[in-house]
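> tool_call: predict_assembly(chains=two)
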Amino acid sequence: MATISVVKQVLDANDRIARSNRALFNQKGVYVINLMSSPGAGKTTLVERTIEGLKDRYRIAVIEGDIQDTYDAERVAKLGIPVVQINTGGGCHIDANMVQEALADLPIDGVDLLINENVGNLVCPAEFKIGENDKVMILSTPEGADKPSKYPLMFHESSVLLINKMDLMPYVSFDLKKARADALKCNPHLKIFEVSCKTNEGLSAWLTWISDRIEQFKQTRS
Amino acid sequence: MATISVVKQVLDANDRIARSNRALFNQKGVYVINLMSSPGAGKTTLVERTIEGLKDRYRIAVIEGDIQDTYDAERVAKLGIPVVQINTGGGCHIDANMVQEALADLPIDGVDLLINENVGNLVCPAEFKIGENDKVMILSTPEGADKPSKYPLMFHESSVLLINKMDLMPYVSFDLKKARADALKCNPHLKIFEVSCKTNEGLSAWLTWISDRIEQFKQTRS
């Protein structure tokens, strides 16, 4: 019982800070996504493709979450985008407090889109709000179609599922129909895009979706 | 500070139960592995291949850890192997207490090898001992070669790294040399096998390693 109440306290504290982050983002007009997936599903490559596709229309900033190292932040910085690295030091997700601290080093005045790339983990990141407008998740075809059944919370919490590495479909036994059906069982409102960040297949539909969300967000504020 | 001491308490309690499990396994002569990887790296398929390769020589039992569902346990049961499913109910790893409870439903008298398949997660499972002799991890080629740098603890804690899905090497950009070198930086004693559970490439070396470990364990007891 003691353990359970501690977990509850942590979540409540996190929710309070997430609301504070959200209020700041609303005030500044920043649309925010929380990008989640297993390790190696293609989060950083999707961030790169999204920046390349939108940077002429929108001002973008990125927060990179990793247990250690700055490799992903270096990849983003090469595209000329303001980026801050969170190192969780063993922690398996980023939380609202880490994002709040990262904002001290990341000017967001005039930023239209803030992308938070979470630690690679299909479980815990879904439990911690950071002040995002939308959670976006990636499932890559080599991981298998059983993932919605095995890790339902992330599919339930996300607005968008990107099924990535579609270029590998001929070489892996991925049941696309089952993956889509089981993901929609977790979350009937889930928007699903089939993409390859290697061949750029399907990415234009994703870029249209996120542009529309940014515009909708701007309209609700005006 | 309060949060840190709670985490310490949880780990101490887990370590105590893990030692108790270990004492029971020693008494019964059961060699135990804790199998860990990202979601979809191929843990259950490796369990199947290992059972197929060793079941004529050794008596094997399996504990399957998943957040929910019994799909993996059903796959193992089809091979005629005693199996118990742990459902963590949202928890991102199995711990010593869950294994202790699973043993109530899993007779281990006469069992030579107990395989514990952990929840798919490259972070937290490495922090919780369950009473195993060896931690064994899988990294699959589509995940990318940067994983040892990003998730060093699991590589540090494991005795064996299986680099799986070698059959996909022509279709993914996986820097095998870098993955091997960086994994060995985390853990110079790590034994590395390159395998494909689809084509069976490299699996005989893995089966020899685990057979040797079972025999060594029997000798230390006699």
